[in-house]
From TrEMBL:
Record flagged with keyword Hydrolase: yes
Cellular component aspect of the GO annotation: cytosol
Protein name in the entry: Nucleoside hydrolase
Domain of life: Bacteria
GO biological process: purine nucleoside catabolic process
Lineage: Bacteria, Bacillati, Bacillota, Clostridia, Lachnospirales
Residue ranges occupied by any Inosine/uridine-preferring nucleoside hydrolase domain in the UniProt entry: 4-290
Keywords: Glycosidase, Hydrolase
Length: 303
């Protein structure tokens, strides 16, 4: 069982990935959820993180990152995630998760410092916190097993023609992470757009459990944004990065040297050089779509 830290900005698909991690407690011991300014304000997405954990009565510690990306101003994505950053659920829950008195980066560093075995990081939002960790605590980085991240895309963008949202919000942070030398698995739009969940796929979960109901209500809202991206179902961006950690055999990828464009109209674009002898990232390009969707649904079902 590996220790896991989830850095995220919930977010409908972040919430799904958190549920998946908790459903796979035989494989992963979720040690902390850290929040990063992404989909919405830090305050709102942190509240959402507590909510999701509390739906399944988790006592995991939640720590906040800074209110802004390293250089950019925050970019709110209310169009796809709603005013709360995670619109949809109607279930009321009592908070069981713990509000950390440390910052996101301090909590990550403490977990790494004390870890007997290497720790996995799942990064589902802009890479601000991970970049700050890399810069502030180089002495603990050898304790990181790998970083599985949702971000970027070698094909195209979703917030500009070139850039994907998570990388676009904090490109400087992303460049720090890609050039860190740490083992990185990148689930970008190339692969995440291959995995969709349709309404008829998740409907059976609605009456199954609290987590099932919350998941169905999250998806009911999230699916409304799909046509804007030419999708019919709910596109499972963040869950792909967790599904990879659960079962790598469902994915195919290639080693590449990835860098992030920082200037001009392509700012925030991830560029992959597959010929480089200095590969820094395993770029996931293909998923067994139905199987990955099944892992997601079965995870929620098991909670
Ligand atoms: C990414 O942006 C957010 O809206 C999602 O949660 C995901 O992390 C997709 O571009
Ligand atoms: Ca996210």
């Amino acid at each position: 069982r590996k220790d896991l830290i989830i850095d995220c900005d919930p977010g409908h698909d972040d919430a799904t990935a958190i549920f998946m991690a908790l459903a796979h407690s035989d494989q992963y011991n979720l040690r902390a959820v850290t929040t990063v300014c992404g989909n919405n304000t830090l305050e709102k997405i942190t509240k959402n993180a507590h909510y999701i954990l509390s739906v399944v009565k988790s006592e995991v510690e939640v720590a906040k990152g800074p209110e802004t990306p390293l250089i950019n101003e925050p970019i709110i994505s209310a169009e796809f995630h709603g005013d709360s950053g995670m619109d949809g659920p109607t279930l009321e829950v009592e908070t069981t998760s713990k509000d950390s008195d440390k910052s996101a980066v301090e909590l990550m560093a403490d977990i790494l410092r004390d870890a007997k075995e290497k720790v996995t990081i799942l990064a589902l939002g802009p890479l601000t916190n991970v970049a700050l960790l890399i810069k502030a605590y180089p002495q603990y980085l050898h304790k990181i097993e790998r970083i599985s991240l949702m971000g970027g895309g070698v094909c195209h963008g979703n917030i500009t023609p070139y850039a994907e949202f998570n990388i676009y919000v904090d490109p400087e942070a992303a460049q720090i992470v890609f050039s860190s030398g740490l083992p990185i698995v990148m689930c970008g739009l190339d692969v995440t757009e291959q995995v969709e969940i349709l309404k008829e796929d998740y409907e059976y979960l609605r009456k199954h459990s609290d987590a099932g109901r919350v998941f169905a209500e999250l998806m009911d809202f999230y699916i409304k944004g799909s046509p804007a991206f030419g999708a019919t179902g709910c596109v499972m961006h963040d869950p792909c990065a967790m599904a990879y950690l659960i079962d790598e055999s469902l994915f195919e990828g290639k080693q590449a040297r990835v860098h992030v464009d920082l200037v001009g109209e392509t700012r925030g674009r991830t560029v992959a050089d597959y010929e480089s002898h200095e590969a820094n990232t395993f770029v996931i390009l293909k998923a067994k779509s139905n199987e990955v969707a099944n892992v997601i649904l079965k995870s929620i079902e098991s909670l």
